[in-house]
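QA checklist item 7 of 12: single-chain prediction sanity check.
[x] sequence parsed
[x] length recorded as 344
[x] structure emitted
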Amino acid sequence: MALITLDGVTKTYPVPGRGQRGRTVVAVDDASLEIAEGSVTAIIGYSGAGKSTLVRLVNALEPATSGRIVVDGREITALRERQLRAARRDIGMIFQQFNLLESKTVFKNVEFPLRIAGVPKAERVRRVTELLEFVGLSDRAKNYPEQLSGGQKQRVGIARALATSPRILLADEATSALDPETTEEVLAVLRRVNRDLGVTILIITHEMDVVRALADHVVVMENGVIVEQGPVYETFSNPQSEVTKRFLHTLVRQVPGDGEFDELRSRHPGRLLSARVLETNDVQSRIEQAVARRPDAIIELVYGGVSTVRGRGFGYLLYEVTGPDQAVDQVFAELVGDDIDEVR
């Protein structure tokens, strides 16, 4: 069941400056997307791709120029401001720079949205105490933000975002200001938010390790357009768009770029095979068997790597095949096909 639906959504802004009257820039272009209840969806793309704008459309911090946005059965694009304020209580948000109130304690920061919502004091105390225990910060309730590490600040941000018991959590580059160890601490909390509380998470990130560790679906954006979307494993193991392939280079080594390829070619002048490795195929054993049948052909792994997403392996391996021409030709004739190509 879709908890969030975008149907042909476009967002444009007027171009500032004299002489620019009537000109607009398109931040999100005809975006259609369904986000299932209980899922974790990552939106990835390079700077200026439209990721942050898309998320701000979901919680109506930005009005859509055209199209429909439905969140939890309510058409956000048709609500008045007073109705939007009520709808936003079901949507929590955490930020890259934490956005904590420096003059207030950890307890008061988490309590703040409950005070705004008019929740009675006894209920506020109970809820804040519960949330600080959930994020592992019960002993920091009286501390101020300046006394916390970056990871602790972000866990306060998560607790505050959950204060009103939202069904949706939006995370805008929530780990990009953190070191790897602290990032894992925050991701562990977010996994619990999704698993134990059933909160649907929509996360903007450019960190592929975050997508791999947390998300089950991924949306790839470029120049305001959704160029690819789907389950993380299927999308990463068989990318269709060039921007997805560029992102994957940070996660697993694929066919080398031009400069790198020239250097590799100078060291390995034989014929090259590129094999796409999936948990559902047997390319490595196929290659080994083909070479075993022709002992005068020599095969060497020269480039590539294998990674995992949600416990499922995938990767790309580049082999050099050398030996007598007839033996090499036979190896290639047998192997080239599904998931194995010759690289020229």
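[x] summary fact logged: The first strand starts at residue 2 and ends at 14.
[ ] second reviewer sign-off
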